[in-house]
Write a structure and sequence with these properties.
Strand order of the largest sheet: 1-7-6-2-5-4-3
Number of strands: 7
Strand content: 25-35%
Structural class: alpha/beta
CATH topology: Rossmann fold
CATH architecture: 3-Layer(aba) Sandwich
Distance between the termini: 15 Å
CATH class: Alpha Beta
Order of helices and strands: EHEHEEHHEEEH
Number of helices: 5
Number of domains: 1
């Protein structure tokens, strides 16, 4: 009997570099319209993961937390765009709606830090990732797929990490 449901994956990262590499694997699998929700306290590694995610997706842009500007856009050489939203400073989910998330999703994947703050306006189908601080180097990552697209994405991601579904 499995410990986790089939739509979930738990992983321990032993260093910031490993967290970036996990992000690279996930980023390489993202498509236009994908939503990746990140949850975790300050210092949990959300932005570190997004650095790898953007690189794996194909962008060489510098990745930083968009806490004060709300949304960063990273581009690939082919012009495709990846959107990185930080919901930490949003007063309500309504403020996120005003950013026109649907338009972003029409153009590329969307990664949301502090996604729990805007959960009520997010698509029901999404990949949710909780990062927890274990110690100075290590992080626990809990992935949960919501919807068939994300179950497939999580299966592909699992295979890319460990070689089995």
């Amino acid at each position: 009997m499995p410990i986790l449901p089939p739509n979930a994956l738990e992983f321990f990262s032993r260093s910031p570099e490993q967290t970036r590499r996990v992000g690279m694997r996930l980023g390489s699998l993202l498509a236009v319209g994908d939503v990746v929700c990140l949850e975790g306290e300050l210092g949990a590694g959300k932005t570190t993961l997004v650095q790898g995610l953007a690189q794996g997706w194909g962008s060489s842009d510098l990745v930083s937390s968009p806490t004060f500007i709300l949304v960063n856009v990273y581009r690939r050489p082919d012009g495709a765009r990846l959107f990185h939203l930080d919901a930490y400073r949003l007063a309500s989910p309504t403020e996120a709606e005003e950013l026109d998330l649907d338009a972003m999703l029409d153009e590329g994947p969307l990664v949301i830090e502090w996604a729990e703050r805007v959960r009520s306006i997010l698509p029901s189908e999404r990949l949710w990732l909780r990062l927890d601080y274990v110690d100075e180097e290590q992080r626990q990552m809990q992935f949960t797929a919501h919807g068939k697209r994300y179950e497939k994405l999580l299966d592909e991601f699992r295979r890319s990490l460990v070689g089995v579904a």
